[in-house]
Amino acid sequence: MPVKTTVDDTGVVRKVVLVGATGSACVIYTHGATITSWISQGKERLFLSKQAVINGSKAIRGGIPVVFRKLPQHGFARTSTWEFLGHKDSIDGVHARFLLRETKETMSSEWPYKFRLTLTVFLSESSLKVGLMVTNMDEVNIEFTSLLHTYLRTTNINDTELVGLSGCKYVDKILGGSDNSDKEEPLVVTKSEDRVYANAPDLLTVKVKGEKEIITVDKSGFKDY
To answer: Is there a single domain that holds both residue 147 and residue 205?
Structure first.
């Protein structure tokens, strides 16, 4: 699979484009290691705001930003420049890897630890797999929050159904942080929502009423606390 890179005047890779054999594609900016586009079966699957700034002056709004190391400010990973480690082709697709490590700025902040963040992106013709590995390079235990803050695109938000959240507890940020639990299945988005689910299941599906396509979200790794 072809891999295209955009390099600035100093020789630093700023953008990486993974291209599949039959039309799948993925765009990753090294600013924040943010995935801004994922095309599968001829359709864009990620939402990127029209107000998104991609010149490196601020965090990119949309796509799949990397949140590390603390909420609610989302941390420094999404505004840092990551190193592109290269790519590797396989029979099923293409892997790309990105690295972020401590800097003088992070070491002088309120979180002065040595670490390595490795983001792995795997593009196949029908799926996109994203992994984040945190390595503690320090001599003490470290605490952090991490998140792949995925913005999925939908053709009609008012007809979008989420399956798999029934019985899950969540915090409703619109209602001032009140605790609630879902009982509906599927959950239909009918108004503006801002919820944080605790211990959400590893498998969720997203579907728009009247459409045959289903997007499956499958996660594993760090546990909620």
So the answer is: no
One domain for residues 114 and 10: yes
Please report the beta strands in the chain, taking only residues with DSSP state E, as ranges in sequence order. 3-7, 13-19, 25-29, 34-40, 43-44, 66-69, 83-89, 94-101, 115-123, 128-136, 145-148, 160-163, 169-172, 178-181, 187-188, 195-197, 203-208, 214-218
| Whether the predicted pLDDT of 225 surpasses 60 | no
Token pair, residue 136, equals 């503690």
Give the torsion sign (CA, 185, 188, 191, 196). Answer: positive
Closest C-alpha among 152, 153, 129, 139 to residue 221? 129
| 44 CA to centre of own chain | 15
d(CA 37, CA 154): 14
Beta strands in 8-82 (DSSP E): 13-19, 25-29, 34-40, 43-44, 66-69
Total residue count of the chain as it appears in this document:
225
Over residues 57-106, the pLDDT tens digits come to 999 999 999 999 876 668 899 999 999 999 999 889 999 999 999 999 99
pLDDT bucket at 178, cuts 50 / 70 / 90: confident
Q: Which domain holds residue 43?
A: 3-153
The total number of structural domains that make up the chain? 2
| pTM for this prediction | 0.93
Rg (CA), the chain: 18
For residues 73 and 117, state if they share a domain: yes
Determine the pLDDT at residue 190: 84
- Are residue 185 and residue 133 in the same domain, yes or no? no
